[in-house]
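Thread amino acids onto this structure.
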């Protein structure tokens, strides 16, 4: 009997897989526990449509990430902060502040968790960082910290 898995089943497959199992295993284990459903024509059509929708969503996310990368790649973000003697900041510059400045200057909304700073920024100067927009798509930027 062919079934479509509704959740991951150890040793059999992952959610959405079409697998062939014995009739008894399907009737006595998978179907009653709602781990799978019988592979009818309608169910196969629904599975195919769901996979196409997922692929379309992934393509749209990649397209959006490439557009954002074109806008912000190799750009400079200026942040002004209060500093004491020797250029040491009172506090530090965080990824949240960098994300806010990117959105303000370039109209690109970036989640602060996608910004990877190389350590903490605690003094005046220029620092390079990376913005991970999607798996395999990232933009390199520079933050310039100036005193107020």
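Threaded sequence (148 positions):
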């Amino acid at each position: 009997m062919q079934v479509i898995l509704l959740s991951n089943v150890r040793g059999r497959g992952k959610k959405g897989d079409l697998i062939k199992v014995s009739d008894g295993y399907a009737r006595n284990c998978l179907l009653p526990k709602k781990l799978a459903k019988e592979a009818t024509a309608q169910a196969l059509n629904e599975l195919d449509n769901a996979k196409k929708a997922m692929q379309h969503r992934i393509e749209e996310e990649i397209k959006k990430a490439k557009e954002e990368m074109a806008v912000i790649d190799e750009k400079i973000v200026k942040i002004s902060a209060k500093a004491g003697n020797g250029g040491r900041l009172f506090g530090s510059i965080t990824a949240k502040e960098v994300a806010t400045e990117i959105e303000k200057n370039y109209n690109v909304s970036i989640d602060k968790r996608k910004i990877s700073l190389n350590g903490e920024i605690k003094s005046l100067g220029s620092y390079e960082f990376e913005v991970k927009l999607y798996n395999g798509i990232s933009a390199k930027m520079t933050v310039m910290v100036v005193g107020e």
